[in-house]
């Protein structure tokens, strides 16, 4: 059978992901693998209709389509995202419809589930038969056991194609929100003196709901917010995945555009940061994705610590739980306060006006109090994963991260809690005594869990 591989790495054949594809080629010589480097060649695909049609024809002639990509900021690379947008813009859905699809990613398992949720949802929106995914650690291919698991994944997919097996669906079609927002004149009542408010948006066009939301929020603050349109931000291209920034946070693009300087001058100095975007397919725009990808010059260090981060979103966010999770996680991973999300999924313009007003008041109050909500698993899980990776496998490369983590006390490993280690050692010995063990679990366990808290309550 013929397999069309859509490579989502900007590095083309030099990517880690493609080594997994080459491995499949060797192991399944009975199948033909046609590889399209759509992320690396995105510029040509946008300019050259013949090149675009070649990719579409390749997909249309295939029995199966493999979405193969490295993870970039919880999703696919910005150029891959743009390729997906073009499918709808150029009405190329027919080439994909009915094809049996699978997804292959490489990463350190940082929010790989959100990337795979996104690709599966895209496949289902295109009418494809999505079979399964394989989320590989970057070096799994070097392990015999993982190679066998990977081969079984491929066999299951090939069998599904050959036998035309039915596939399981996970995502319902999106029902678009048709409400047109007509804001009332805003009263600049929210006091934000001493707090710099920055709004980053993909458009300021007041002919759109998003543009009107941005304008309304800006005018709600007594000291107007700074507004930056991503279309005007000097980004000459997307992240190249070269990792040259890992030593000293210097990006290869720094000498060619102004993104790094703009990020440091305006975003790092803000107190309240609002990101505004409209939903495109199952995410925000590819331009937004490029903004996030390019911010990787900060590596795995939270460059926006201590800020208030919130969102204005135009579109059916209530039907996009995967996207909502990514938005909240971004704020938490920055060790900032997640100030909330305002969407235009409301019944009236007056209701949206009220929500924007309340949103601004909440963000300003939290900034006054320097309030940071407790971090959920969305933030803690990612922080621990990065901590362990930078301490061990990735430290040699990501020297800037290591210096930052060390200076800011991020290496908070539990084994450094020596009093807990001593308690565990003694406890393990005592637990071997049946009488002690019985009394502990039956009479001491539950009262002991709340004893310290009861003291705090009593003294309040």
TrEMBL record:
The keyword Signal does not apply. Gene3D superfamilies: 3.40.50.360. The keyword Flavoprotein applies. One of its GO terms (molecular function) is oxidoreductase activity. Keywords: Flavoprotein, FMN. Residues 1-133 form the NADPH-dependent FMN reductase-like domain. This is Predicted iron-sulfur flavoprotein. It comes from Candidatus Moduliflexus flocculans.
């Amino acid at each position: 059978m013929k397999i069309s591989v859509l490579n989502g790495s900007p590095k083309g054949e030099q990517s880690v992901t493609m080594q997994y594809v080459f491995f499949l080629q060797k192991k399944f010589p009975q199948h033909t693998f046609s590889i399209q480097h759509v992320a690396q060649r995105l510029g040509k695909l946008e300019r050259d209709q013949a090149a675009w049609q070649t990719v579409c024809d390749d997909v249309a002639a295939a029995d199966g389509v493999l979405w193969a990509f490295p993870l970039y900021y919880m999703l696919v690379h910005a150029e891959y995202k743009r390729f997906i947008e073009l499918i709808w813009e150029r009405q190329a859905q027919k080439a994909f419809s009915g094809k049996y699809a699978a997804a292959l990613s490489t990463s350190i398992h940082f929010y790989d589930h959100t990337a795979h949720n996104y690709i599966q949802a895209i496949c289902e929106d295109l009418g494809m038969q999505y079979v399964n995914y394989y989320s590989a650690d970057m070096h799994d291919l070097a392990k015999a056991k993982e190679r066998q698991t990977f081969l079984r994944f491929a066999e299951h997919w090939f069998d599904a194609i050959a036998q035309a097996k039915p596939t399981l669906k996970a995502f319902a079609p999106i029902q678009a929100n048709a409400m047109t927002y007509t804001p009332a004149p805003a009263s600049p009542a929210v006091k934000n003196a001493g707090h710099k408010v920055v709004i980053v948006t993909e458009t300021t066009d007041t002919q759109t709901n998003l543009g009107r939301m941005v304008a309304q929020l800006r005018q709600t603050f007594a000291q107007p917010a700074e507004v930056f349109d991503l279309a005007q931000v000097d980004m000459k291209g997307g992240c190249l995945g070269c990792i040259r920034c890992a030593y000293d946070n210097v990006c290869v693009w720094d000498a060619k555009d102004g993104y790094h300087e703009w990020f440091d001058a305006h975003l790092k100095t803000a107190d309240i940061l609002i990101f505004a975007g409209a939903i495109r397919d199952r995410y925000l725009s590819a331009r937004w994705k490029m903004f996030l990808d390019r911010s990787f010059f900060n590596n795995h260090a939270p460059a926006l610590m201590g800020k208030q981060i919130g969102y204005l979103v135009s579109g059916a966010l209530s039907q996009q739980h995967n996207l909502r999770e990514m938005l909240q996680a971004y704020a938490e991973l920055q060790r900032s306060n997640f100030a909330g999300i305002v969407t235009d999924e409301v019944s009236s313009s007056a209701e949206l006006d009220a929500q924007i007003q309340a949103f601004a008041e909440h963000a300003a109050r939290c900034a006054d109090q320097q309030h940071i909500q407790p971090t959920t698993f969305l933030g803690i899980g990612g922080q621990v994963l990065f901590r362990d990776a930078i301490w061990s496998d990735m430290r040699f490369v990501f020297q800037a991260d290591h210096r930052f983590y060390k200076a800011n006390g991020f290496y908070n490993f539990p084994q450094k809690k020596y009093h807990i280690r001593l308690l565990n050692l003694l406890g393990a010995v005592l637990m071997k005594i049946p009488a002690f063990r019985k009394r502990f679990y039956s009479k001491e366990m539950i009262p002991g869990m709340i004893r310290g808290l009861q003291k705090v309550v009593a003294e309040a």
